[in-house]
Each structure stands twice: as structure tokens, then as C-alpha cells.
Design goal:
mainly alpha
Amino acid sequence: MTEFFLFVYAMLTLFVIAAIQRNRRAQRPSPQMVTMVGWGLFSLSSTLAVLLGAVALALALGLHMQLPPGFDAPIF
């Protein structure tokens, strides 16, 4: 399921970036929907970066977190 969401996120991001670049080259404004989706993707990316950065910092400082069931990958 994660792969599906990553695929949708990537395709949506590529579409928004391509649409904004095409409109910028043509010197016309982007539609409001494209701009709003772009801001939503930016917010999602920023939030995930901060949360994953906090997890990485906690692991680096020695916090031992309980992993979800089925997540047996060794961290170190």
C-alpha cells in the first residue's frame, strides 16, 4: 500500500511541477487548483521531513523505540 501512495505522490508532484514550468515559460498564470495542490504537496513534504528528522535525531541520541509489528529491519 505504501508503494501505491508513493507512486501517486510522485506522479502528482511531477504533474504539478511540469504544469507550473509550462505556464511560466508561456508567461501565463497557473490555475488556482494547480497552485493549491502544489502548496498541499509542499506542506506534506515539509511535515514528513520534520517528523522523520525528529525520529532520526531520537535514534541518534540513543532512544530505543518500539517498532511496529512486522518491521524487523535492524537499525544499526
